[in-house]
Design goal:
Helices cover about 70% and strands about 0% of the residues. The chain has about 80 residues and is mainly α. About 10% of the residues are buried. The chain has one domain. The protein is elongated, with a radius of gyration of 17 Å. It starts with a helix and ends with a helix. The structure holds zinc ion. Zinc ion binds next to helix 1 and helix 3. The site of zinc ion (ZN) has 6 residues, from helix 1 and helix 3.
Length: about 80
């Protein structure tokens, strides 16, 4: 039986059909019993289909320069 944490880690692969049959069964079983994860995967599926349809393209634009700057600082040296 998968934990909720394990499920959240495999949810993207699950939606993309990248899991093995055994993994898919485990995820499906968990979703049948856990409405919290069902809602999570449902939401994720909507997000993924939105991304694939291109409607969320604006959100996927170039990262803000400030973000890149903060990232460099966080890593230390460039
Ligand atoms: Zn769960």
């Amino acid at each position: 039986m998968l934990s909720c944490r394990e499920l959240s880690e495999t949810a993207t692969d699950y939606l993309e059909g990248a899991l093995t049959l055994r993994q898919r069964v485990g995820v499906t079983m968990h979703l049948l019993m856990c409405k919290h994860c069902r809602a999570y995967v449902d939401q994720l599926a909507k997000t993924v289909s939105l991304l694939k349809s291109g409607q969320a393209e604006q959100d996927m634009a170039e990262p803000d320069p400030g973000v890149i700057d903060a990232f460099r600082k966080a890593r230390g040296k460039p």
